[in-house]
Specification:
The complex is a heterodimer of chains A (about 375) and B (about 475). Chain A is about 30% helix and about 25% strand. With about 375 residues, chain A is an alpha+beta fold. Chain A has three domains: about 5-170, Uridine Diphospho-n-acetylenolpyruvylglucosamine Reductase, domain 3, CATH 3.30.465.10; about 175-265, 2-Layer Sandwich (Alpha-Beta Plaits), CATH 3.30.70.2190; about 265-350, ACT domain (Alpha-Beta Plaits, 2-Layer Sandwich), CATH 3.30.70. Chain A has an eight-stranded antiparallel sheet, with helices on both faces. In chain A, strands 3-4-8-6-7 form a five-stranded antiparallel sheet. In chain A, a hairpin with a 4-residue loop joins strand 15 and strand 16. The longest helix of chain A is centred in the middle third of the chain and has 15 residues, at about 230-245. The mean pLDDT of chain A is about 95. Chain B is an alpha+beta fold. Chain B folds into four domains: about 1-105 and about 445-485, 2-Layer Sandwich (Uridine Diphospho-n-acetylenolpyruvylglucosamine Reductase, domain 2); about 110-225, Uridine Diphospho-n-acetylenolpyruvylglucosamine Reductase, domain 3; about 230-335, Alpha-Beta Plaits; about 345-430, Alpha-Beta Plaits (2-Layer Sandwich), CATH 3.30.70. In chain B, about 35% of the residues lie in helices and about 20% in strands. Chain B has 19 helices and 21 strands. The mean pLDDT of chain B is about 95.
Chain lengths: ~375, ~475
């Protein structure tokens, strides 16, 4: 069963006798393992509409991300939210698809300035658990016609419907970029600096801190500026003076390579220790890391999004991959944690996504029951009760 | 405009309802006198009016929860209201509803500059959120035209935007979390001071749901540092097509202005007559604004002006001073007032792909002749959000109906070219019956299924957003009748 069209895919879902495992490029095996027949969407491919003057692109869900990016690059444009490539971290081969990016709401370092994947996603077409073809949103920037199911579908990991088409807002690739780099700061100092940078008028598009051992022996604190060449030069200089301390400025390919490293959490590649992705308010990032270090859990940490996105590699597996310690701390701090890398056994054992309070869990379960009454779309992936 | 027939059983229980509400709220927070409830009979879509059964003005999440618990218990519909500035009838009451106003909930609960957020009560006005953080040069980005008066509660309900959302996005892109009360009184937290949802993006679907999923009582909003400066340039063109092409070229060149505003000839003339801003007499006018340091603004404007020159503008005027910037914006900002001075008008709110701009303007011109009503166009060209203003005479019999029919044709045209019925005002009652032009029945079923989960009895703002014919069976089953609202 490899659907080549939306109609075939709808037919496949409608006719399914049991659970289905939705497969795009297979590069992001996030969530609890799913037992089900594979439902590949890669057969639905191709950019169907691209209007550079309107900053809009529409593509079938199975379109390789690389094809989308190449199409955009020809016109000097890109996806603003800088989607992460999970392959290095998760040791996967395969071809990332644009539908997979949307289904997992995958955003990179520029999320702090350009918004998340869900913020650029203008419209979706999808097949629900009964096999009905549905649409929501459209291909215009502003649309408040009815409920915004586009947001609901972004990050639902195919549990509410199988995406067949996605429409994105895109942005121009800026003329140049520059990155300020400071070394040797501890996480607390670093986040103070990043907050100062993000609270400046200099339009920061990346603000991260790579702890010691994350690609270099010493910690690196990095701030990115993009735009017209003169403007970037001016803002880099102004920011350097405003932040104080010793900052080195790197540009062009060195800067781009550094941010690919941050985007893909490359320092944690080629390992199998559990890796968590935690979203907290920026000043809580260093607090969380310190607590995990004191508990002997955290091996290395990378803080992106000005400190608010914590990637933490857990060294000593106490049986739950650090789940209890992380979630206990989040109960105090607020925020949410996702186990992105872990063995199948670990991901089956602990809740991969943040457990919800009872009223919200009931709403999530209620939505799943409406969109997928037979419970056949990626069942259990997000911890369905 | 069709509205459901009020449930006589609910109306008959008014005394008991008032008594129960008065037991949980201060005396001055429950309004049930017919003369006083009349003050809440409409929002900014004043063509339709109906006083509510009772008005409540709670001051806290706890009080909202108590009110909803009672209304849930009594089976009474609840219409939430922010500041009542909805242009789509989103807060229009019914005669059997409790109108729940959040206007007393205006507090700033938390300001956090290092983490760049502010937490406010939902009745606080949009502009006063920026006011609460301006001492540190921060601001809240979404800027609907009504920002002086409109409440954050309404902004969340309608997913409001404004002139600057080309760069900064609309409410949903700047909303981090809410405290919300479900219809049964349960208080839930969605999101928080952190980014993105942990599970399903419930916050994303609540934003823009027009008060039908829960009553938002508090909001955590992203705040941004103000740019160093901003400067507009004014451009006049001989045709709408050329102005539209210029917009596309600016965007394709990789420059991201914070605003690109477009006015057509009827609008330019009206604004000029009203405000005397010194606009040229031409077919189409663009105001393009960029932000940054002086040097950055110079560099961006130089590129924009170079692009504009390739389109043979009849006027190209870069602001040289604060005063000149204010004058360039003066006419645009006076547009609605200017049109109101000429005649009654209906302000539409459709969105189109920017590439369809010349075609849509041409068709609107043709339809204007067919319907015999003048139209002026002003809109956010960067994101394709149009506001055709149809002029009519409310005192002339039949004019309003012709105007509504013409408006509906324009909105259908927006959908036909790939756009949508509403870009920022919402569906409310105004565009409810056009929904089937944009969505198939199954698409609307999927949206209504979401309401089924949050509000199974369909008590929250029930007669909005969805055509009455498609929501009939859900709206309690016991009340499927309809009547025409005054």
């Amino acid at each position: 069963m490899e659907p080549r069209s939306e109609a075939e895919l709808a037919e496949a879902v409608a006719g399914a006798a049991g659970p289905l495992r939705v497969v795009g490029g297979g590069t992001r095996p996030i969530g609890a393992p799913v037992a089900g027949d594979p439902l590949p969407v890669a057969g639905l491919a191709g950019v169907s509409l691209y209007e550079p003057g309107a900053l809009t692109l529409v593509a079938a869900a199975g379109t390789p991300l690389a094809e989308v990016e190449q199409t955009l690059a020809v016109e000097g444009q890109r996806l603003g939210f800088e989607p992460m490539d999970h392959r290095p971290l998760l040791g996967r081969a395969g071809v990332p698809t644009i539908g997979g990016v949307a289904a997992a709401n995958v955003s990179g370092p520029r999320r702090i300035q350009a918004g998340a994947c869900r913020d650029s996603l203008l419209g979706v077409r999808f097949v629900d658990g009964r096999g009905a073809v549905l649409k929501n949103g459209g291909r215009v920037m502003k649309n408040v016609t009815g409920y915004d199911l586009v947001k609901l579908m972004a990050g639902a990991f195919g549990t509410l419907g199988v995406l067949t088409e996605v429409a994105f807002k895109v942005q121009a690739i800026p003329e140049t970029e520059a990155t300020l780099v400071a070394t040797g700061l501890d996480a607390g100092e670093a986040v103070d600096r990043l907050s100062a940078a993000l609270g400046s008028p200099y339009d920061i598009t990346g603000a991260a801190h790579l702890g010691p051992g994350c690609g270099a022996p010493e910690a690196r604190t990095v701030v990115r500026i993009e735009g017209l060449a003169d403007s970037v030069r001016y803002r880099a200089g102004a920011l350097k003076s405003a932040l104080g301390g010793d900052w080195q400025v790197i540009g062009d390919e060195a800067s781009a390579a550094l941010w690919r490293e941050v985007r893909d959490v490359a320092p944690f590649a080629a390992g199998d220790a559990p890796v968590w992705r935690v979203s907290v308010k920026p000043s809580d990032g260093p607090v969380l890391v310190a607590v995990l270090e004191q508990a002997g859990l955290a091996k290395r940490a990378i803080l992106d999004w000005g400190g608010g996105l914590v990637w933490v590699e857990v060294d000593d597996d106490p049986g739950d991959g650090g789940a209890a310690a992380i979630r206990d701390e989040l109960a105090r701090l607020g925020g949410h944690a996702t186990l992105v890398r872990g063995s199948d056994a670990l991901r089956a054992r602990v809740p991969v996504f943040q457990p919800e309070p009872a009223p919200l869990a009931a709403i999530s379960a209620g939505l799943r029951a409406k969109f997928d009454p037979r419970g056949i779309l990626n069942p259990g992936l997000m911890g369905r009760c | 405009m069709e509205m459901p027939i009020p449930d006589p059983a609910v109306v008959a229980r008014k005394a008991r309802l008032v008594e129960r509400l008065a037991a949980v709220l201060p005396a001055d927070a429950v309004i049930h006198d017919d003369a006083e409830t009349r003050a809440y009979e409409c929002d900014a879509l004043t063509a339709y009016r109906c006083p509510p059964l009772v008005v409540v003005l709670p001051a806290s999440t706890r009080e909202v929860s108590e009110v909803l618990r009672i209304c849930h218990d009594e089976g009474v519909p609840v219409v939430p209201r922010g500041s009542g500035t909805s242009l789509a009838g989103g807060a229009l009451p019914t005669a059997d509803c409790v109108l729940l106003g959040v206007a007393r909930m205006t507090g700033v609960l938390e300001v956090d500059y290092p983490n760049r957020f502010v937490r406010v009560q939902a009745g606080r006005t949009n502009l006063s959120v920026s006011g609460a953080v301006e001492e540190e040069d921060f601001f809240y980005a979404p800027d609907p035209s009504s920002q002086l008066a409109c409440a954050i509660a309404g902004n969340v309900a309608m997913n409001s935007g404004g002139a600057h959302c080309l760069k900064y996005g609309v409410t949903t892109n700047n909303l981090l979390g809410v405290t919300m009360v479900l219809m049964d009184g349960t208080v839930v937290e969605l999101g928080g001071a952190h980014l993105d949802a942990g599970g399903l993006d419930l916050l994303g679907v609540v934003c823009g749901s027009e008060g039908q999923l829960g009553v938002v009582t508090e909001a955590t909003l992203r705040i941004l540092r103000k740019p160093e400066g901003a400067r507009p340039v004014l451009m006049g063109f001989d045709s709408n097509e050329v102005a539209g092409a210029c917009v596309a070229d600016i965007i394709r060149a990789g420059i991201l202005p914070v605003a690109i505003e477009f006015m057509d000839r009827p609008c330019i003339r009206a604004c000029e007559a009203f405000a005397g801003a010194g606009y040229p007499d031409c077919e189409a006018l663009l105001i393009v604004e960029v932000q940054g340091s002086d040097a950055e603004i110079d560099a961006q404007l130089a590129r924009i002006m170079a692009i504009a020159r390739t389109h043979d503008p009849v006027e190209l005027r870069e602001s040289e001073s604060e005063e000149e910037s204010a004058r360039i914006w003066l006419g645009r900002k006076s547009a609605f007032g200017a049109m109101g001075q000429i005649n009654d008008y209906m302000c539409l709110d459709g969105t189109i792909p920017v590439s369809s701009l010349p075609f849509v303007l041409k068709r609107i011109g043709e339809m204007s002749a067919e319907y015999g009503l003048d139209v002026a166009n002003v809109f956010h060209a960067g994101d394709g959000n149009m506001h055709p203003l149809i002029l009519f005479d409310a005192n002339r019999p039949g004019d309003l109906e012709t105007c509504e029919a013409f408006g509906a044709e324009i909105l259908k045209l927006c959908v036909e070219v790939g756009g949508c019925l509403t870009g920022e005002h919402g569906v409310g009652i105004e565009k409810r019956d056009l929904m089937l032009h944009q969505y198939a029945g199954a698409d609307l079923e999927a949206q209504m299924a979401v309401k089924d989960v949050f509000d199974p009895d369909w008590l929250l703002n029930p007669a909005k957003v969805f055509p009455l014919s498609v929501s009939d069976t859900r709206r309690t089953g016991r009340r499927t009748g309809r009547q025409t609202a005054a």
